[in-house]
Amino acid sequence: MKLAPHLHRIGNDIVAVYLIVTDDGVTVVDAGLPGHYGDLVRELKSLGLTPDDVKGVVLTHGDSDHIGFAERLRRDHGVPVYVHEADAQRARTGEKGKVEMPPMKLGPTVGFFTYALRKRAMPTKYVSEVVEVHDGDVLDLPGSPVVVGMPGHSAGSIAVYSELADAVFVGDALTTRHVLTGRTGLQPAPFTDEPAEALESLEHLSGLKASWVLPGHGTPWRGSPDEVAAEVRKGAA
């Protein structure tokens, strides 16, 4: 799905993956689930491209529903996988602390796990080798993505900002569709390590000039990043 001249999305409102497309190649932001690889290949083919045109995968964090096909691109096409140093171990092994079980409703919860299984979520394909990044880094990749530290959902959660794409990719720093309740609108994401810290980190989006705020779960949101923190707090209330 083309969202803007340099911006594409694959997946859906349950799990989404984003592409920054330029004349110099493609940057993939998050890698969804392993079964999204076929969606990636089809989207690239529609653009006259192949996986060899992907220059890097940038992970907003190391959870299993964001690292899906990253290892396949790394292994088969030599694509480097970037993740914040604090989530590097998470991406390589799945190691993380325990979080409280969030509220859920039967229908959306079953839908989420059914979709995940259909996209071959099990077994998780961890990333053998990663390139560690830090807050403020500007990556030498198509779209010149900027790393914005967003600790809270995980210690190494980041947002990825691209002026060219006119977008900030926020991973699970927030959601516009709660995968376990089906509730829509800007709100905190479930399975967050440190909820209070995650809300505080939303202030880091202020000042970014973008028309799109793009979560890993839910519909793309059109609006200024300056408005996000207040809107998510309303959603939390």
From TrEMBL:
Question: What sequence ranges are listed for the domain Metallo-beta-lactamase?
Answer: 14-217
Q: Does the keyword Hydrolase apply?
A: yes
Alphabetically list the UniProt keywords: Hydrolase
Does the keyword field hold Hydrolase? yes
Q: Which Pfam families match?
A: Lactamase_B
InterPro entries referenced in this protein's UniProt entry, alphabetically: Metallo-B-lactamas, NDM-1-like, RibonucZ/Hydroxyglut_hydro
Q: Give the matching SMART domains.
A: Lactamase_B (SM00849)
CDD domains from the xrefs?
A: yflN-like_MBL-fold
Q: Which GO terms describe its molecular function?
A: hydrolase activity
Q: Which domain of life is it from?
A: Bacteria
Give the signal peptide, or none. Answer: none
Q: What is this protein called?
A: Glyoxylase-like metal-dependent hydrolase (Beta-lactamase superfamily II)
Give the species.
Answer: Microbacterium kyungheense
